[in-house]
Prior knowledge:
Layout: H1 11-22, H2 29-50, H3 52-64, H4 79-91
Protein name: Type II toxin-antitoxin system ParD family antitoxin
Amino acid sequence: MNVKNSFTLSERSLRLAEKLVEDGQFPSVEKVLEAGIDSLLRDEESSAHDDPLIGMKDEIRRRAELPRDQWVSMDKDNLFDRVRARIDEKYKGK
C-alpha cells in the first residue's frame, strides 16, 4: 500500500536528488527519496543486531526506565561494595 505524503527538502538535497534523476539512476525524485529511506531503515535494522553499541544503548535505556528504588546510587565511598552485594543477592542459590 502506498501512502501519499509531502516533504520539505533543503535546496542541496533537492539538487542531489534531481542530479540522480538526470543521470538516469532513478525515474523520479520520489523514487530517490524512497530508496534512501529504505536503505537507512535496512541499515538500522541490520546494525541493531550486529553492533554491540546498539545493544549497550538499549540496555542503558532499559535500566534508566527502572523504578528509582532499583537504581544503584553513585556514592563514591562504597559503590562497588553495594554493587557486589546486589549481584551476590541476585545470584544467591543459583
